[in-house]
Amino acid sequence: MAFKPGWGAVIIAxxxxxxxxxxxxxxxxxxxVRSLDYVTASRAMGASHVHVLMRTILPSLVSPIIVxxxxxxGTAILEVAGLSFLGVGGDPTEPEWGSMLAQAKDDLATxxxxxxxxxxxxxxxxxxxxxxxxGLRDALDPRLGRHNAxxx
Length: 152
Fold this sequence. Notes:
Helix content is 72%, strand content 0%. By secondary structure, it is mainly α. It starts with 6 loop residues before the first helix and ends in a 12-residue tail after the last helix.
């Protein structure tokens, strides 16, 4: 926020905060996948380093990154709303959940209704993205055992 406050600064700040999380996930997954048998077999068949990376390791990185991104969206929504609540987000006259909560906090003694809408919207959005991330993790993670309902 040392730069000019606005949506560009908010997007850069939230993005920079989350880069180490994604880098850590990519590195951990790549280190795990590179020791698997199908990567070793690809190397044994004479595949180049670029081919091994692009055709065997990179496809294994897609599902964890998609899951992490959907889970991270809820966190990003909360971070942006918090920055807007503090007044370092975009234009405070624009309709944004954090700025709506900031305007409603002055009237909490008389009525909670102005704060209830944006608060519930933030909560439901975060819950929705977390449930989406959990569902995608269950659907995309090959290590989780999928039990067929018909097999008992």
